[in-house]
Write a structure and sequence with these properties.
The structure is a single chain. It is built from 5 helices and 7 strands. About 30% of the residues lie in helices and about 25% in strands. It is globular. β4 and β5 form a beta hairpin. The protein is α+β, with helices and mostly antiparallel strands and about 150 residues long. The longest helix is centred in the middle third of the chain and has 18 residues. Strands 1, 2, 3, 4, 5, 6 and 7 form a 7-stranded mixed β-sheet that branches.
């Protein structure tokens, strides 16, 4: 069975705080978060540690662009319960660094999270963007559907 691509998410694959039945805007503002699959598959990182990396990258990307109009809209009090994140996975460090370089070239603001003091890249998050402006950059990545077990 082939993993689904990011452009065809199944229900619940995008993490959204909403759920009140209101229709999504035609071009929602989203934040993309990309995690390294090798962290849990090959290196045995626990779920909490992986989630912490995503949180670090997400908060850093938003904070770095806190004066940006889209970021302010995404974080506005009336929108806090309707934030949308698309969480994808990359194979490992090389693919994460290559993506960061591609995003830099394309002018897409993001934060490559480098865990310190180890100097170890773990995650990448964009600032919030209208989905239509950035989705093409992420279409080759799979939704993160990691299964963690003991």
């Amino acid at each position: 069975m082939m993993p689904e691509q990011a452009q065809a998410p199944e229900a619940g694959a995008e993490a959204s705080g909403g759920g009140g039945g209101a229709e999504a805007p035609p071009d929602p503002i989203v934040q993309y978060v990309l995690l390294r699959r090798d962290l849990w598959q090959e290196q045995g990182w626990p779920l909490g540690s992986v989630v912490a990396q995503a949180c670090h990258a997400s908060v850093a990307a938003i904070w770095m662009h806190s004066d940006d109009a889209l970021t302010m809209s995404y974080c506005a009090p009336g929108n806090l319960d309707h934030m949308t994140k698309v969480v994808l996975e990359v194979k490992g460090e090389a693919q994460l660094r290559n993506l960061a370089a591609k995003l830099q070239e394309a002018g897409i603001a993001h934060k490559l999270w480098i865990e310190q003091p180890e100097d170890f890249p773990t995650c990448l998050a964009t600032k919030p963007y209208p989905k239509s402006q950035v989705a093409a950059q992420f279409k080759k990545f799979n939704l993160c559907k990691a299964m963690f077990s003991k």
